[in-house]
Amino acid sequence: MIIALILKKLKNALTDLLPIILVIAFFQIVVLRQPLPQMGEVIFGAVLIVIGLSLFVQGLEMGLFPIGEAMAQALARKGSLFWLLCFSFALGFSTTVAEPALIAVAAEAAAIAGQGGLIDPSPDSLNRYAFGLRMAVAFSVGLAILIGVMRILRGWPIHYLIIGGYAVVMLMTIIAPEEIIGIAYDAGGVTTSTITVPLVAALGVGLASSIRGRSPLIDGFGLIAFASLLPMIFVMGYGLILFR
Amino acid sequence: MEFIVDFSKILLATCRDVLPIIILIIFFQLFVLRQPIPHLRRVIIGSIYVVIGLALFLAGLGKALFPLGKIMATQLSDPAFVYGTAEIVTHANWMAYGWIYLFAAMIGFATTIAEPSLIAIAFKANEVSAGTIKPWGLRITVAFGVAIGISLGTFRIVTGTPLYLYILVGYMIVIVQTMSAPKNIIALAYDSGGVTTSTVTVPLVAALGLGLAATVPGRNPALDGFGLIAFASLCPIITVMGYAQLVHWKTKRTTKAMEKNNAL
């Protein structure tokens, strides 16, 4: 019984990985015409990926989704707007501020700004710049989750907010320094990590299903969309304030 | 032995990522909500699965996929391979990069299928929509979007056209689609833009972008290497809404046809 379940999970994970294996094999054999380097290592890595992915999916269903929904429902029942918004902001801020992908992007952005002569290229000033950028992004993700939760509570339609956000991004693109635009656009994509996404989704769906008159599908999703939109605006704003 | 050291490092890093969430939840449970978490044992075991699973997943990626993907990205963008001669090429010819566009599209599609956060969202969407949104349907639609996005992004790097033009046009399309797309897909479509780019896709795609910007004549890695991730988060929004519109339009047409038949 349990073995059959484990085998099923492993099979699912293998299906998830299959496209990558096919693409790499196709390009190695047909296009580049080279044998795979270090075959043993690659197969070992693939086995780890399959086991890891099955464990992760199992853990999602047992741990992350239930805890996210339980917290959302408990906070909704408590009925305190202040604590709900505190929780939303803290969830966005704390999971983003230490995100490795963000640290890497911020350091790279600082190096580019230093080379471009936008800021003083000394290591001290570069570190300050990278730290400020990270704070700007983390703050904006916290604020994004907060706004998203407000939207679920009030039932605002998501498209006005997102289209309004796009309009701001377009306007800022015109006036922001060119060096920061690419980084700002990418910052939107790197903020949402693998553990944050399920939690935030469970929070949104849990809230929407515990408030009368909200549909989990129409109102519950959308938190992640805010979390990828606001960082773009904040990073460009950070560039504008610093370089003008 | 070396692997055990590597794995412990990744496991520690994953634990550090989870730490703020655990502190936040404990703080709220103890001081604000003051009530026990239902099925606490199960939740804790599940969270341990998530941490160990993610660490194994990342260790496997670091061992097998990333080195391989990066080597392939460099080989494919190498001017000697692209132009088939050892001569130095001074002007980029965008037509010579066919394999790059294909590789970008295929690797974008394949990595998105394996992206754990997209699996999570697809699972949730299926549950919430009472089964009308199929997990594989959503994942494949999103993966198509990423494939188109990354391929377009590499084309932009090769031609050196400005990033903001593409993004602005993309936004216009999203805005127009939003006005006519079925209401219940809009939030999910916006979300699928954000989830595509995490653990698997970002490192591979960033390597492709920077490698390409470094080898295409006339490109500057600092300015042109960025932006692929932006494409990968914009295009899935368009494909998900587009697919929903297509399904909506088709069902509307069949119901209309059925009404006509009934009337006759």
Q: Which word captures the global form of chain B?
A: flat
Portion of residues within helices of chain B: over 70%
Q: Bin the strand percentage of chain B.
A: under 5%
Tally of discrete structural domains of chain B: 2
Could you walk me through the main structural features you see in this protein, from its secondary elements to its overall organization?
- The complex is a heterodimer of chains A (about 240) and B (about 260).
- By secondary structure, chain A is mainly alpha-helical.
- Helices cover about 85% and strands about 0% of the residues of chain A.
- Chain A is built from 10 helices and no strands.
- The mean pLDDT of chain A is about 85.
- Chain B has 11 helices and no strands.
Brief synopsis:
The complex is a heterodimer of chains A (244) and B (264). Chain A has 244 residues and is mostly helical.
Keywords:
heterodimer, A: 244 residues, mainly alpha, 2 domains, 85% helix, flat, B: 264 residues, 11 helices, 81% helix, 0% strand
Topology:
The complex is a heterodimer of chains A (244) and B (264).
Chain A (H helix, E strand, L loop, with lengths): L1 H30 L7 H40 L2 H17 L2 H16 L7 H32 L3 H18 L2 H13 L5 H15 L5 H5 L2 H21 L1
Chain B lengths: L1 H32 L6 H38 L1 H5 L14 H16 L2 H13 L6 H25 L3 H18 L2 H13 L5 H15 L5 H4 L3 H36 L1
Helix pairs in contact in B: 1-2, 2-9, 4-6, 4-9, 5-6, 6-9, 6-11, 7-11, 8-11
